[in-house]
Predict the structure.
Amino acid sequence: GENVEQHPSTLSVQEGDSAVIKCTYSDSASNYFPWYKQELGKGPQLIIDIRSNVGEKKDQRIAVTLNKTAKHFSLHITETQPEDSAVYFCAATRSNNDMRFGAGTRLTVKP
Amino acid sequence: DGGITQSPKYLFRKEGQNVTLSCEQNLNHDAMYWYRQDPGQGLRLIYYSQIVNDFQKGDIAEGYSVSREKKESFPLTVTSAQKNPTAFYLCASSWGVWEKLFFGSGTQLSVL
């Protein structure tokens, strides 16, 4: 089955800097890769997703890139703000197969 | 407002007791899911349901049971057979299965 590894487990950046979180997956047939943001005491919220037929997707300050050959995808947050502080999860799935989540990255943005 | 509601927010279980966690959605989603989250770990799938009256086991279904009698509702029962139930439980729903999951705000279950 699919296995998703996520790095780093913790990340601390200064406000205004960029943050990058990386995930690798094992199943080459995986074709959908979402990213979720979880604030303390709340459920995860979908922030961006990408399909395997696209190499990059951007939404304001966040972007996701996908390298199918290397089987890895990354979340990029530019101009970080304190409200970006949260735990971020990547996930991977293929049609009719359950979604596998990474272990999460705790991002802290220092003002 | 459309959304997915989990209750209660906090729940305590005595040894040997079964407890039921509620999950209700008014998003008209077909698929619903239950995940377990332990500190410092990713989400692990307990059960999921694609349609009413049908559900499938996930990786860690032992000690849990579910029902899907209505499209809007997917309750999870943590049975006494689950020896380590302390965790944060998340319910989710989606239009199509395994895409764009919407999560509830979770239930923290602890053992007395």
